[in-house]
Amino acid sequence: MSRALILGIVVAVALTVYAVVDCAMFDSKRTKVMQKPIWLVVILLIPVIGPLLWMFIGKGSGDSVMQTTVGTQIIPDDINYISDPKSEREHDARIAELEEQMRLLDEEIERDRQSTMRNHPSNHNTGAIPTVEGEDLDEDDTSKTNGDKNGNDDEGRRQ
Length: 159
Description:
2 strands, about 160 residues, mainly alpha, two-stranded antiparallel sheet
């Protein structure tokens, strides 16, 4: 008889510990009948019946979808649920629109980056001689770049 009593106490304690941990870890939005803190009190104050009530009545089944009633329409609480094909098409169209906006922004960022790189001070040679586009420097033109406007260099002035 004492073995049965000890076994019953061990089972009751294990059941209570399991129910307390399960209730504490359970999503409070999915509890039924009462709020989660009240369920914890019921589980702890009513030794065997409290945990059993929690397991059979208190927590919703894992596979059921919680629903919220708005007016006469029932809206599922599952975020992955899409009710009709029309809203799915609208959803896909919105995603396509956002992807296009992101592509345009990426292109704009790339253009700005290229512009910044072209105009960056490190890309300009401050000591280089500017050339006019389409004009090639020949060997005859080197005297103009090294001398004065008339093509005379410093040695020509000394004479």
